[in-house]
Amino acid sequence: MMVESVKNFVGGSWVEAKSGETFDSINPATEAVLARAPLSGGEDVAAAVQAAQAAYKSWRLTPAPRRGEILFKVAQILAERKEDLARLMTLEMGKILAETRGDVQEAIDMAYYMGGEGRRLLGYTAPVEMPNKFGMALRDSVGVVGLITPWNFPVAVPSWKMLPALVAGNTVVWKPGEDTPAISAAFTKVFEDAGLPAGVLNLVTGAGQTGETLVSHPGVRVLSFTGSTSTGLKVYTKAAGLGKKVTLEMGGKNAILVMDDANLDLAVEAITWSAFGTTGQRCTATSRLIVQSGIKPRLVEALVAKARSLTLGDGLEDSVDVGPLVNQKALDKVSGYMDVARQEGIRVLTGGRRADREKGYFFEPTLFDGVQQGMRVEQEEIFGPVLSIVEVASLEEAIDVNNSVAYGLSSSIFTENVNAAFRAIRDLTTGIVYINHGTTGAEIQFPFGGTRGTGNGMREAGQAGLDSFTEWKSVYVDFSGRLQRAQIDTDKILGES
Ligand code: ADP
Fold first, then answer.
1. Rounded to an integer, what distance in angstroms lies between the CA atom of residue 432 and that of residue 248?
2. Does 192 qualify as catalytic in the annotation?
3. Does 234 sit in the ligand 1 pocket, CB within 6 Å?
4. What is the pLDDT of residues 169-195, one digit of tens each?
5. Is 83 one of the catalytic residues?
């Protein structure tokens, strides 16, 4: 297969890196080189920021409904190219076609949702203290925004950032994950073909250093990051020192709680797909099963059977349920947790090792039993097809175990008892809560993000998603024709008018 040559997109042109350096993107199912991309340096980031600054002058003045129309066009082109984009995504990062199609669909949904914001972007008016005076609050654009994204949702996650940023009148410099440059370029091409003016969206591919340069650049006032907690905190620290606004979406240690009265078959299906879908490499993946004692034996037996029935392989094949891990580093990390599990005295019910295949970073779906609250495998994000089973006696204990981790993205409970469900809604301290559904499958019209170590209090998607990329501007219009200074003036002015 031919190695694709990826370029940066700067100021409306596809260009090589000024650094002259490149890096390779590897198909994780075959270990073949898929694409070669610019390893962008400081000069490349600077050129992209400069292009974005130049384009901002007219983009911010483009009427928002017109900006929204371009987003609708983005949605249409994405829909036309959905299959091609999904196939390229599977080739580049490994998840199965059904999931890569879903990834593109998220961007289509978000493009329509944020396109609609072009005719909304709601501010508000409120009464003011003086007569003959009017007050309103408007959402204003910020300027050039820097986006740093990972490889696991290479179209969906960037779309959650760039679509609200663009409709609000900002211009963008995007640094995608180093495992997914080719799909990132294909996604950027959609915006070019939709008629987005030159310089409004700029792509610079590269590694961590490229991202760091973008964070430090004085022309970038706002950053939105999705990725690991350790990198996110580095970005946050650096950006804070420079007084920048940051949105962070980092790790998760998501749990499904299963109560004795749960619908067993439904729970088995949901746990399987939330734990092993995308090979466990979603920030919302289920990595803990917190199960009440009564249902545990039946549930665990069914889960082991289900995990063993999953077909591993190249995500392009229809019969495959679970693709590879993204790269050798991910495989080493997940394998490392098997040693941790052994040291912690955990029983491996199924899996626990690299799959027996000639090529590719495949790891068997794995179930750990006998996991206790506080163990490393119960606390740390593994980011692979590994589910830790924790047995509890009651709903209260289950909720306590759920809440006692450093992360707070997503949680779920399976119960047929409405009182238990509402207690869980009240007491589970995650940013997303599901009832009788797995921990994955967020919809773009609701806020997405987490508490504790998952984020920094910001949210993506929904109306909240606009907060990252807008400033509030409060406007006072005094049409009294005089300087109104204090409440004391009120009676007098009212008498005159
Ligand atoms: P992952 O495990 O998903 O690769 P990372 O947090 O390492 O998670 O990467 C997420 C994104 O952050 C990637 O685009 C990566 O290149 C970028 N990145 C890595 N290190 C830094 C850094 N020090 N500053 C800014 N961005 C970085």
1. 16
2. no
3. yes
4. 999 999 999 999 999 999 999 999 999
5. no
